[in-house]
Specification:
The complex is a heterodimer of chains A (619) and B (92). By secondary structure, chain A is of the alpha/beta class. In chain A, strand 19 (546-550), helix 24 and strand 20 form a beta-alpha-beta unit. A five-stranded antiparallel β-sheet of chain B has the order 2-3-1-4-5, covered by helices on one side. In chain B, a hairpin with a 5-residue loop joins strand 2 (30-37) and strand 3.
Chain lengths: 619, 92
């Protein structure tokens, strides 16, 4: 199904521009409009100028009476910013995000966002200009082998060498980006192809027979009665069943089906970093995040469960740690996914189904409800409640210094269920994952797999364009925000009411935490206490009229309230305790039994060695 | 264990690089690789020989099937050693 903008819908079903002659650049813009895009992100340059001009002309021709452009093109400080804006837009809206950049450095600056989107399964289309076909391979000005570079990073890359294929290629790029396991698709368009005169077809697509056949097989896969019976026989034999839900639940729009399944069978749910919001984090059966920095109660529940159902989750090393010792008491592991390559990739499973997650969950729910009652889980629920009570998240509440967790709790009190939160990568990201509650999908935007510092600010900008009325907060760290600090100006240029929260601990806190644990406290290159930057002045210089620094613990609630209530862009730097750590922590390669809960969360076992993994093999 | 993979590939710009790049990125060493035309000029046939465990083969085949240009992947594995008389375990 292809969404179309109103001005291109024709009653007959054929495209109103079919048969018309358009330039390649005009074809690009028309396809973007047909795909329903209401904002584009990108930075211009020589090899993409025809497309930029076509976007300008399209917006001028289709502006509303109030002068509003149907497809504004948002310009970042750096192309990487445009990539993360498109990703933030896609993550917050569920639609395909689009970015347009020039050749050479424009495209190579997009390698990081494209890889980031691939690793987190985010649908995105990147259009890059390329030198003319006759100059390909000549080491031309601003030429880069984009097909080679992006071929290794993206779900797919097209180099359009025949202008007649441009229209079908672009439409197919969107189809590939959003179908199956979503991902980024790159379309590299030589400048002469942008300038070619083409007859617009209005409906053409590339055949891609291998991809379509495999996709159709998976899309049509349905659980048989035998599949369901085997699943429920194992579930009926279990006393401690647990759901482990990942980002696939959100990508597949399966959160309502998951909620209905849990409502029917009362299995507790732990979510991955990417899965936060895929299940209501305030639900009594929600355990929060599992894994390296998961809640202690979630990780203990994984240790204790005898039945594990993985849904759209892939046993990533930050979750499974030591995969052989992950969920050691689970006698039955079931896995639902859309990607055949994820079944049994890390952990052998006893039962699996490949197919659309929502359909599978609905089918299981119906079958289970129709085929007899399951044994009571009262003992398990009581056990879970005890875990949540005894091993609740906690931190140095009595410290005189500002603890980052207290700041996040203050935000949660005001904005729970309402805020869309983007983050950088590091300690602040983990604290936000631990201390903010997400009640619905697409409110939590974070670079999960790639762990890209600098993601938060541009992702928040993209999310604000997807939801202009929403409260969008970038929770950032001083290391991460530096990576794309140029985008502070983008916030004010476009008058976006983004709230930028900087938890400043004067250094790369997560690196310091590892150095403290595994490198005898040698803070190699991670301490920034001598750095001179005044972030508040920087925000003011970039046009933030509300830019403040919070350094007194007593002011947290009032300052956070004023910060979130400000009607416009707001920047708040918080001087946090530089020694604050992220706990619990399951060391890299360690098992959950070796979890370090820190000084403020009770552990149920005596501390063991941090990890029996050589520092050289840790990652 | 030694494995032979037969891959039918759409003859698109960069398609061969994407297959070879996938194997390199996933730390899978290719012993031999031949590329040949088929009766259909839009389709190439790749034949790869590599060695590794059955689990490694299973994973790399599944990853190869995710490449958009790939039409089909078939494998043939020698189950004993290089001197075994029979090639078995065809995996369509």
């Amino acid at each position: 199904m292809t969404p179309r903008s109103p001005n291109t819908l024709a009653a007959s079903g054929t495209h109103p521009l079919a048969g018309r002659t358009l330039s390649g650049a005009e074809v690009v813009v028309q396809i973007l409009a047909d795909e329903g895009l209401d904002v584009l992100f990108g930075y211009s340059g020589g090899a993409i100028l025809p497309v930029y001009d076509a976007v300008f002309r399209y917006n001028a021709a289709h502006a509303t009476d109030a002068g509003r452009e149907p497809m504004p093109l948002i310009v970042p400080a750096n192309e990487q910013g445009a990539g993360f804006m498109a990703a933030g837009y896609a993550r917050a809206s569920g639609k395909v995000g689009a970015a347009i950049v020039t050749s050479g450095p424009g495209a190579t600056n997009m390698a990081t966002p494209v890889r980031d989107a691939m690793a987190d399964s985010i649908p995105m289309v990147l259009i890059s200009g390329q030198v003319p076909t006759h100059a390909l391979g000549s080491d031309a000005f601003q030429e880069a082998p984009v097909s080679n570079i992006m071929g290794a990073c993206a779900k797919h890359v097209f180099l359009v060498t025949e202008a007649e294929q441009l229209e079908a290629t672009l439409r197919t790029a969107f189809e590939i980006a959003r179908s199956g396991r979503p991902g980024p698709v790159v379309v590299d368009i030589p400048k002469n192809v942008q300038n070619a005169q083409l007859v617009f077809n209005g409906d053409s697509r590339l055949p891609i027979p291998g991809y379509r056949k495999r996709l159709a097989n998976i899309q049509q896969a349905r659980l048989t009665d035998e599949d369901c019976q085997r699943f429920f026989t194992a579930l009926a034999a279990a006393k401690r069943p647990l759901i482990y839900a990942g980002g696939g639940v959100i990508a597949a729009t399966a959160a309502p089906a998951l909620a209905a399944f849990v409502d029917a069978f009362k299995l507790p749910v732990t979510t991955t970093l990417m899965g936060l919001g895929g299940f209501d984090g305030t639900h009594p059966l929600a355990l929060g995040m599992l894994g390296m920095h998961g809640t202690a109660h979630a990780n203990y529940a994984v240790e204790d469960c005898d039945f594990l159902l993985a849904i759209g989750a892939r046993f990533d090393d930050r979750v499974a740690g030591n995969a052989a010792k992950f969920a050691p008491n689970a006698r039955f592991i079931a896995q639902l996914d859309i990607d055949p390559a994820e079944i049994g990739k890390v952990k052998r499973v006893d039962w699996h189904h490949l197919g659309p997650l929502a359909d599978a969950l609905q089918r299981l729910t119906q079958y289970g409800q129709a085929n007899g009652a399951l044994p009571s889980l009262a003992d398990w629920h009581a056990h879970i409640a005890r875990l949540k009570h005894t091993h609740a998240m906690n931190y140095a509440r009595d410290s005189e210094r500002i603890q980052p967790q207290a700041v996040l709790e203050a935000i949660n009190r005001i904005a729970v269920g309402r805020a869309i939160v983007a983050t950088g990568v590091g300690q602040h990201q983990m604290w936000a994952a631990q201390y903010l509650d997400f009640t619905a999908p697409r409110h939590w935007l974070t670079s999960g797999s790639m762990g890209t510092m600098g993601f938060g600010l541009p992702a928040a900008i993209g999310a604000q364009f997807a939801h202009p009325e929403a409260l969008v907060i970038d929770v950032d760290g001083d290391g991460s925000i530096r990576m794309n600090i140029g985008e502070l100006e983008t916030v004010t240029t476009y008058g976006l009411p983004v709230k930028v929260l900087l938890l400043n601990n004067h250094g790369d806190g997560m690196v310091r935490q590892w150095q403290k644990l595994f490198f005898n406290g040698r803070k190699a290159s991670s301490d920034k206490s001598l750095h001179k930057k005044d972030f508040v002045k920087a925000a003011e210089a970039d046009g933030f009229t509300w830019a403040r620094r919070l350094s007194d613990k007593a002011d947290i609630d009032a300052t956070i309230a004023a910060f979130l209530a400000f009607d416009g862009p707001a920047f708040l730097e918080v001087e946090i305790d530089p020694d604050a750590g992220v706990y619990p922590m399951v060391g890299p390669g360690a098992s959950y039994a070796q979890m370090i809960t820190g000084d403020f969360i009770p552990s149920r076992s005596a501390p063991t060695a941090p990890a029996d993994v050589a520092t050289t093999s840790m990652f | 264990m030694r494995h032979t993979l037969s891959i039918l590939l759409q003859n698109e710009s960069g398609a061969l690089v994407r297959v070879a790049g996938l194997f390199a990125a996933r730390h899978c060493n290719i012993d031999t690789l031949t590329v040949a035309a088929t009766h259909d000029p839009s389709v190439s046939q790749l034949t790869l020989v590599l060695h590794g465990s059955a689990a490694m083969l299973d994973q790399i085949v599944r990853q190869t099937r995710k490449l958009v240009d790939v039409l089909d992947v078939n494998t043939l594995s020698l189950v004993a050693n290089d001197h075994a008389p029979l090639a078995l375990a065809s995996n369509p």
